[in-house]
Amino acid sequence: MTRPADSHPPASRRTDRIAEMFERTRAEGRPAVVVFVPGGWPEVDATADIVQAALEGGADAVEIGWPFSEPMGDGVVNQKAYEQAIANGCTGETVLDAVRELRSRGVRAPLLVMGYFNPLLSYGISRFVLDAAQAGVDGLITVDLPPHEAGELEGPAREAGIHMIYLLAPTSTDERIRLVGERGSGFVYCVGVVGITGARSVLSDELPEYLGRVRSLTDLPLAVGFGISTREHVRTVGEIADAAVVGSAFVQLVGDTPAEERSARIRAYLEEITGRDPGTPVADPAV
Amino acid sequence: MTQQTHGAQSRGASDAGGVPDAYGHFGEFGGQYVPETLMPALAELEAAYAQYRDAPDFLEELGDLLRDYVGRPSPLTLAARLSEEVGARVYLKREDLNHTGAHKINAVLAQTLLARRMGKRRIIAETGAGQHGVATATACALFGLDCIVYMGAEDIRRQALNVFKMKILGAEVRSVESGSRTLKDATNEAIRDWVTNVRDTYYIIGSVVGPHPYPMMVRDFQAIIGREAKQQLWEKEARLPSIAVACVGGGSNAIGLFHEFVDDPVRLIGVEAAGEGLDARHAATLGAGRPGVLHGTRSYLLQDAGGQVTEAHSISAGLDYPGVGPEHAWLKITERAEYRSITDQEALAAFQHLSRLEGIIPALESSHAIAQVLKLKSEVTSDDLILVNLSGRGDKDMMSVADALGVTL
Q1: What is the mean pLDDT of residues B178-188?
Q2: How far apart are the first and last CA of chain A?
Q3: What's the pLDDT score for residue B25?
């Protein structure tokens, strides 16, 4: 079994919220459920309320998407949401403002920023890492920044106590898996399909073999994402991994729901996919 | 021409000026900024390219195709009346006379041969104006391969003739409705297809852009332009050119011309599209952009303050791209090459000028290089020898030129 904490703890003495999350979900004998939502979308100031509703519904962590005009790893649902977010005026500052707002509301769940490298590069690596750490960001997932190109970000991020979470795919060789295991921290994001983001009706047959291979080569907790949309998917993933990431399906739900019903629908959806009894306390006691 | 001058020679990858390094970096530029799903495919491509680039059977097959199918070597033409006007001898490297009408076919055929050796029977490509799409559809027809070309919906509307050509050649043209619905969006969609179908699909990139090994590999396959020109010029003038000029969109025809001369005392000038002017809509990535990451490579790009990629504009669809090959970014910051820009209006004027002066109708892309040569008049003497890459012919542009001149056909 994997160790409770990651093998490369961040240098700072900040609380490691990701390690705490996995300690708790393991103790409870269930996978962590992570949701993804683009920042600054559907309205530019909507993010904090969406994240809070997801946490209240039972999500254990949230990835906030930093919109990019060229999201080459994303399917049509996320592409359209990013386009709208950019049109709304969402920037890196908007994403960090949402994180600050959530921390000021007392949210203690891991909050991750997921996106592409160019907006981060444009923001300035050192400036971003400092701002993100101050805002309360726990980890970065940068889709087009594989570990062998990430040196200039990895050092400052680790210094600031921010986890670098790398992705793996079913096509990944053992060599790539080892590299991600050595360079990453927090958890490994295992892309569940050979393909781009988007909800799928069935999970890949390759999943158990692929996850088994990753498990044998790294001690980091494993999250599975891309294509996960139902309670059944979450349960299946829970048998072989430490976390399930629900992305496009959640984005679709938010996009299809009128603003006034949004928080209630989000809570209900999270209760459904986590299988949590609405009467029990949520993972993040602050919300 | 000897057999040896065809195809990729042993000189190339890491031995020409030390770039790129093993990971595809040209100094701080280049690299592999891609989703992890693609890393095995890039490693497979690197290995295949390393295996075949100097393999005699590969070079022989490519050399035969370039000679008998494309019509290489392409001629080197002394532009006598243009020379008189500029005040220095100007030679045109006639890539416009290649089969399919431009330099694109050189790298497409080479990549198609590589795809076949890798056992990939499904070919995808992105295209803006449609020239790279037509070249790819042509090569796939020649070898009986499945061909899917991604093209922005807006470009499909503007380039109906090339869309029809691709269909006649048996390719499937997929319309891309996302983003600005132009080349950059078609490239995103081709990358998404590749991420999804990576196990049986070869992605033929049309320029010296994208993740390593594409910028190096496409450069090596296009380097035949400069290699031939150097030899041809030597036969005619017994010396090197003093200046080499080429237009730059992604930058493949320019790198193809420059590569052979990088270590020689030759002034290299790349010409970008200034569109409506650098303070308005343009495609001068090196002249007015800043470093960033787009489509898997680190280079200059057109972007806003928040790092969102902005739309490029040029009257020439082939130059209408917000990125540029990483080797050009490196040649720029090391000051080995100069980059200038030419407006839509200047390119249009050069298009007509060369037609009347030399009886050669250039592509609008190549018209930017011609316009730059005309501007060199004050900088050159009669001792100068100018080599220009005439990267494509203007047939495809007749409708847009008529449009721009207010002529109804």
Answers
A1: 91
A2: 31
A3: 97
Q: In whole angstroms, how far apart are CA B157 and each of B151, B160, B171? A: 10, 6, 17
Closest CA to A193 of A167, A226, A223: A226
| pLDDT at A286 > cutoff 90 | no
**Strand ranges inside A85-152, DSSP E:** 111-115, 139-142
For residue B122, the surrounding DSSP H or E stretch is: strand B122-127
Q: What is the dihedral of CA B383, B349, B222, B330, to 10 degrees?
A: 80
Contact B293 A117 (CB under 8 A): yes
Using CA atoms, how far apart are residues B211 and B199, in angstroms rounded to an integer?
17
Contact at CB, B307 and A119, closer than 8 angstroms:
yes
Q: Can you give the pLDDT at residue B18?
A: 61
Which of A71, A75, A168 shows the shortest C-beta gap to B36?
Answer: A168
Residues with Cβ within 8 Å of B394's Cβ and at least 6 positions away in sequence, in order, are B96, B351, B355, B361, B362, B363, B364, B366, B367, B401
Which 8-state DSSP code applies to residue B323?
Answer: B
H or E segment and range at residue B40: helix B39-52
Q: Is B391 assigned a catalytic role?
A: yes
Task: Identify the residue with better confidence: B367 or A192.
Answer: B367
* Cis amide leading into A146 (omega within 30): no
Q: Could you tell me if B339 and B248 are in contact, meaning their C-beta atoms sit under 8 angstroms apart?
A: yes
Q: How far is Cα B63 from Cα B42, in angstroms, rounded to an integer?
A: 25
B230 catalytic per annotation? no
Cβ contact (<8 Å) for A70 and B295? yes
Pairwise CB contact (< 8 Å): A118 & B292: yes
**Which chain A residues are Cβ-neighbours of B309 within 8 angstroms?**
69-70, 118
Mean pLDDT along residues B77-104: 98
Backbone φ and ψ for A34, nearest 5 degrees, come out as -115, 135
Side-chain half-sphere exposure of A60, counting CA atoms within 13 A: 26
Pairing of strands A243-246, B297-301: unpaired
Average pLDDT, chain B: 94
Q: Given an 8 Å threshold on Cβ–Cβ distance, is A72 in contact with B39?
A: no
A vs B: CB pairs below 8 A: 116
pLDDT at B4 over 90: no
CA-CA distances (angstroms) from residue A97 to A86, A106, A236, A239, A263? Answer: 15, 14, 35, 36, 20
A163 phi/psi in degrees, rounded to 5: -75, 140
pLDDT tens digits for range B255-308? 999 999 999 999 999 999 999 999 999 999 999 999 999 999 999 999 999 999
Please report the ipTM that was assigned to this predicted complex: 0.92
Chain A contacts in chain B segment 1-30 (CB below 8 A): 23
Domains and CATH numbers, chain A: 33-272 (3.20.20.70)
B234 at A interface, C-beta within 8 A = no
User: Do residues B212 and B46 make contact, with C-beta atoms less than 8 angstroms apart?
Assistant: yes
Which one, of B117, B127, B102, lies nearest residue B48 by Cα?
B117
- Residues B32-67: tens digit of each pLDDT: 999 998 998 999 999 999 999 999 999 999 999 999
